[in-house]
């Protein structure tokens, strides 16, 4: 459907309440909404800026944001029913609401006011447009500054650093759609001599992982990027001088302690200690709308809250990040930085406990920082990736590593840096970090196939252009196929099985990609899944992964007879499900949202070695619908003028009936990004709505 451009003006008089004083916001703040639902905010001061930022997020994501704040309070079951009770229990187990209040008290006065401005924008939008707010969500209003800090803790500390479903994070198993890719290309590797950056997080397409694309302009601030919905700061982005990206860090910021129950408490050295306890009464809305009450009793040891208990043992979770309350200050300083020294000074505060950071700037500097907070763990033969004895003070850590102690590469000699959720040791090749210079627990030692594909593309191109950077970002070649298909095809062609000859012909003709029209990718995926190939299953390969040859191993099929049998089974399954062996990838894997149904490309990063990550769920007729992977995507060249392109695969809005829920899906299907509009003239040439405050 053709979207006709309309430009309208809404004059809004907003009243903000600051410390008991009423302040009328002047009408010198504008939100210019472009044709893809991206708000470009121009404000005279920071309070006006953050007011408009909260307002803009409500316009595009109001109901989602309110639900997330309700969950962050630990009151979602009260608002939405018993299905949210487990979420509330997780929030209160980790004392998030109380800590959010404590964090707010620690903020500088001006930042408290910024939080107040942001929430005032949220609340005023809801008051101005009540029909856009779901009935159940209205009970969550008004939003308060503590909600912002509770939401941040719930998402970053308690769903990234740790997780209610996975409290023993295994960094060797990066198989889901939650991860990221990023590159920084320095002047010696860039065809133009300008540094370049890829921003490419992989997250589920919804819920707390939803990105919001935005531009913020105020005084010396001009930052473009994206934030997770509900956050008052830009999480990943760039300004005129520099930019940064994040990937999920392969670090271990949590530990599970196994406590021996004794004397009503737990053993501690030669004695025992009682548990500290807290009681929380949770309200639960029934199907009839009537509230009931459930009591949650929370036990805590010196390590942290008890998250599991049986007859003889209790398990306590200790997590980093609980004493880093100044995340907003750090990211505002990062956004205001104009050179590497200023950015590094801001980033070195390590207020974000989790992410790897990739950086590039117009002066030609590039950096990979293995960021986040890593505990300084006691010496000893302890299983830090499993459970640790909790009956001795010898295993209890208190501090985290400083910025100076973390792995980082600045201005790599190779001219390039990459991260695809692999450990920092392979950020560039030849290596510039030696893992032996760091504690063993700092990060594991592996390089999965997606990271190998990432490094190979950068390594093999002497000079990378901006257009090549886009092509690499969209690359769907399966690294695993290059290790296995030749041997498989040769063996299949030599067999007496005519069906295997047909399968071999399909694989031989296949482009080894997962593009919309790639024919053979579906068959290869079925075969790989049937055998279980993965980087941490070395016995399935003829040659295992070797640290001294990280980009070319593992390789070959260990048991070719088993491989042929699996190919026969996989081929029959493909025919049964899809009618032919050479079904196109995009006929099976789709982008489906609202009335959009388009062919998809890309797939799970591993074990297939796909740089273009798309996660899927099964739907009817043996097809699959995209539900995650590449989300906010951007490439930037820091030249004069700066070049930048971006897209959000699912669109920049989640509100029902918004045209921006699906208007960027076509770019995902076509492996394209759209130009970024940053100057006022560009924005006004692509304008659909202007709001003035």
UniProtKB/TrEMBL annotation:
<dbReference type="GO" id="GO:0016811">
    <property type="term" value="F:hydrolase activity, acting on carbon-nitrogen (but not peptide) bonds, in linear amides"/>
</dbReference>
<keyword id="KW-0865">Zymogen</keyword>
<protein>
    <recommendedName>
        <fullName>Acylase</fullName>
    </recommendedName>
</protein>
<keyword id="KW-0378">Hydrolase</keyword>
<dbReference type="InterPro" id="IPR002692">
    <property type="entry name" value="S45"/>
</dbReference>
<keyword id="KW-0732">Signal</keyword>
<dbReference type="Pfam" id="PF01804">
    <property type="entry name" value="Penicil_amidase"/>
</dbReference>
<dbReference type="GO" id="GO:0017000">
    <property type="term" value="P:antibiotic biosynthetic process"/>
</dbReference>
<dbReference type="InterPro" id="IPR014395">
    <property type="entry name" value="Pen/GL7ACA/AHL_acylase"/>
</dbReference>
<dbReference type="InterPro" id="IPR043146">
    <property type="entry name" value="Penicillin_amidase_N_B-knob"/>
</dbReference>
<dbReference type="InterPro" id="IPR043147">
    <property type="entry name" value="Penicillin_amidase_A-knob"/>
</dbReference>
<dbReference type="InterPro" id="IPR023343">
    <property type="entry name" value="Penicillin_amidase_dom1"/>
</dbReference>
<dbReference type="InterPro" id="IPR029055">
    <property type="entry name" value="Ntn_hydrolases_N"/>
</dbReference>
<comment type="similarity">
    <text>Belongs to the peptidase S45 family.</text>
</comment>
């Amino acid at each position: 459907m053709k979207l006709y451009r309309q430009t309208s003006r809404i004059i809004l008089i907003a009243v903000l309440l600051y410390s008991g004083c009423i302040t009328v916001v002047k009408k010198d703040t504008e939100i210019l909404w472009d044709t893809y639902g991206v708000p470009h905010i121009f404000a005279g001061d920071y309070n006006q800026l953050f007011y408009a930022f909260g307002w803009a997020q409500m316009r595009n994501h109001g109901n989602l944001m309110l639900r997330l704040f309700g969950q962050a309070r630990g009151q979602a079951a009260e608002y939405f029913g018993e299905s949210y009770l487990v979420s509330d229990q997780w929030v209160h187990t980790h004392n998030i609401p109380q800590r959010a209040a404590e964090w707010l008290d620690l903020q500088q006065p001006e930042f408290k006011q910024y939080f107040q401005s942001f929430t005032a924008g949220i609340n005023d939008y809801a008051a101005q447009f009540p029909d856009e707010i779901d009935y159940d969500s209205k009970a969550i209003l008004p939003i308060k500054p503590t909600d912002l800090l509770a939401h941040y803790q719930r998402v970053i500390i308690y769903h990234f650093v740790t997780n209610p479903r996975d409290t023993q994070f295994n960094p060797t198993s990066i198989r889901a759609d939650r991860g990221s890719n990023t590159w920084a290309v320095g002047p010696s590797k860039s065809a133009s001599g300008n540094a370049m950056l890829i921003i490419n997080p992989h997250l589920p397409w919804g819920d707390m992982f939803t990105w919001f694309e935005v531009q913020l302009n105020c005084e010396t601030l001009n930052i473009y990027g994206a934030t997770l919905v509900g956050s008052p700061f830009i999480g990943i982005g760039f300004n005129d001088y520099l930019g940064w990206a994040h990937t999920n860090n392969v670090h271990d910021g949590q530990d599970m302690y196994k406590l021996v129950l004794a004397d009503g408490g737990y053993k501690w050295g030669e004695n025992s200690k009682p548990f500290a306890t807290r009681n929380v009464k949770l309200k639960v809305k029934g199907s009839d709308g009537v509230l009931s009450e459930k009591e949650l009793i929370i036990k805590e040891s010196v390590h942290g809250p008890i998250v599991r208990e049986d007859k003889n043992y209790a398990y306590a979770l200790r997590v980093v990040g609980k004493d880093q309350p100044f995340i907003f200050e750090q990211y505002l300083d990062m956004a205001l930085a104009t050179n590497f020294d200023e950015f590094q000074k801001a980033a070195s505060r390590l207020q974000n406990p989790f992410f790897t950071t990739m950086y590039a700037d117009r002066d030609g500097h590039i950096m990979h920082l293995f960021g986040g907070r890593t505990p300084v763990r006691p010496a000893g033969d302890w299983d830090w990736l499993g459970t640790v004895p909790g009956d001795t003070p010898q295993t209890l850590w208190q501090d985290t590593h400083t910025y100076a102690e973390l792995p980082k590469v600045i201005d790599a000699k190779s001219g390039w840096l990459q991260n695809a959720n692999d450990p920092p040791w392979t950020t560039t090749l030849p290596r510039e970090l030696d893992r032996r210079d760091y504690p063993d627990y700092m990060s594991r030692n592996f390089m999965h196939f997606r990271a190998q594909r990432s490094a190979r593309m950068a390594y093999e191109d002497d000079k990378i252009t901006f257009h090549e950077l886009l092509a690499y970002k969209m690359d769907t070649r399966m690294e695993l196929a290059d290790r296995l298909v030749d041997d498989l095809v040769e063996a299949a062609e030599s067999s007496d099985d005519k069906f295997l000859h047909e399968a071999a012909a399909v694989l031989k003709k296949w482009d080894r990609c997962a593009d919309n029209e790639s024919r053979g990718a579906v068959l290869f995926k079925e075969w790989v899944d049937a055998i279980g190939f993965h980087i941490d299953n070395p016995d399935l390969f003829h040659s295992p992964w070797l640290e001294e040859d990280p980009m070319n191993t593992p390789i070959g099929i260990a048991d070719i007879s088993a491989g042929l049998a699996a190919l026969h089974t996989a081929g029959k399954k493909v025919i049964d499900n899809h009618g032919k062996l050479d079904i196109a990838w995009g006929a099976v894997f789709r982008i489906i949202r609202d009335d959009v149904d388009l062919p998809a490309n890309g797939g799970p990063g591993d074990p297939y070695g796909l740089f273009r990550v798309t996660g899927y769920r099964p739907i009817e007729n043996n097809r699959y619908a995209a539900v995650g992977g590449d989300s906010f995507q951007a490439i930037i060249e820091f030249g004069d003028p700066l070049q930048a392109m971006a897209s959000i695969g699912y669109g920049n809005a989640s509100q029902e009936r918004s045209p921006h829920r699906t208007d960027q899906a076509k770019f995902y299907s076509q492996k394209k990004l759209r130009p970024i509009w940053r100057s006022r003239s560009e924005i006004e040439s692509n304008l659909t709505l202007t709001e003035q405050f």
